[in-house]
Each structure stands twice: as structure tokens, then as C-alpha cells.
Design a protein that fits this description.
Number of helices: 5
Structural class: mainly alpha
CATH superfamily: Cobalamin adenosyltransferase-like
CATH class: Mainly Alpha
Oligomer: single chain
CATH topology: Hypothetical Protein Ta1238, Chain: A
Number of domains: 1
CATH architecture: Up-down Bundle
Distance between the termini: 60 Å
Length: about 190
């Protein structure tokens, strides 16, 4: 099997369950940005594997990466075929978002967050989580753009991405091995 299909040579791409859209379509932009987030989290997970005692954090990162494939499928589905989506497989569900909230609450309870802005870059894993967080925020904005352009967007996708960005902020702090610099007000 060849990696290239030549189907996208005309500037279009296929949707889940059929149909094609322009590669500049708001849906393509939204789920493409989700794909970027998956890759950014892969970098964070790779950096975690170099750190002793980070196995549970790496496992959680992998789980989030897998859930982002569900988000991508939800966004990439032919609007006329949304009824074919399966909860937790290709359709984002409220329990996925609730799981993120539980994780956030557990991490923050164990390690309260600072009240100041953080300057990212404490170590490679922490920095990678911060990059992933900003990519997820962009995916969230692109999903809102998709909705605002008249396309159907599962409201749970927006909630999930919003909560995931919060979780990634918390995971970046968790991955930092030392206190991180705080921002200073401009003089």
C-alpha cells in the first residue's frame, strides 16, 4: 500500500463516512490542529520517558493523545453522517470531559497552582506540555470558527478542548522538576 493516494492533489480531503471538503475548510483546520496537539503531546511523552518516576504521567499523556483521535473524528465527520458516530470511539462524550476535571482537581489538590503567570521552560517535558496547551487552545478556537461558519460542532468537543487546555497547564506544572519563574509586571 502506498502512503499517497493522490486524492488530495486537487486541494480537497476526505471526511469520515464520506464526502470531501477543501483543505482550507474550517473543519479541516479544526481537526488538523487537533492532530498537531496529538504530536505536541507525543513530544511531551517522549521527554517524560527520559525522566525517572514519570510513568503514570506518561500513561495519562498517551490516554489524552488517544482521546484526541476521538475529538478529531468528531470534527472530521461528514455532517450528514454524524448519526454513525459512536460514543467514546468517534464521538466526544460528557464523561470524557468529566474525567479531565477529576484529573485536574486531583493534581491541583496535591500541588496547588501559583497565582502568577508562569514563564514556560522549566524542563523539556514541561515546555512541551505548555506548547501542547497552546495548540489545544488554537484547536478550540478553530472549532468555534467551524461552528460559527455554520457547521455542526458537538458542544462537548468545545468543553473537552477547553478543559484539556486547563489539564495541560496543570501537567506542565507537574512535569516541572523545579520552581518555575513567574512573570513580572512591566515597568
Amino acid at each position: 500500500m502506498k502512503i499517497y493516494t493522490k486524492g488530495g492533489d486537487d486541494g480537497t480531503t476526505g471526511l469520515l463516512h464520506g464526502g470531501r471538503v477543501s483543505k482550507s475548510d474550517p473543519a479541516t483546520d479544526a481537526y488538523g490542529t487537533v492532530d498537531e496537539a496529538v504530536s505536541a503531546l507525543g513530544l511531551a511523552r517522549a521527554f517524560l520517558s527520559e525522566s525517572a518516576g514519570r510513568d503514570s504521567l506518561a500513561a495519562e499523556t498517551l490516554r489524552v493523545q488517544q482521546e484526541l483521535f476521538i475529538v478529531g473524528a468528531d470534527l472530521a465527520t461528514n455532517p450528514e453522517q454524524r448519526g454513525k458516530l459512536k460514543a467514546g470511539t468517534s464521538l466526544v462524550t460528557p464523561d470524557m470531559t468529566e474525567r479531565l476535571e477529576t484529573l485536574i482537581d486531583g493534581f491541583v489538590s496535591a500541588n496547588p497552582l501559583p497565582n502568577e503567570f508562569i514563564v514556560p521552560g522549566a524542563n523539556p517535558a514541561s515546555a512541551a506540555f505548555d506548547v501542547a496547551r497552546t495548540v489545544v487552545r488554537r484547536a478550540e478556537r478553530r472549532s468555534v470558527d467551524m461552528r460559527d461558519s455554520g457547521r455542526e460542532v458537538n458542544p462537548e468537543v468545545l468543553r473537552y478542548l477547553n478543559r484539556l487546555a486547563d489539564l495541560l497547564f496543570v501537567l506542565a506544572r507537574e512535569a516541572a522538576d523545579a520552581p518555575e519563574p513567574r512573570s513580572r509586571p512591566s515597568l
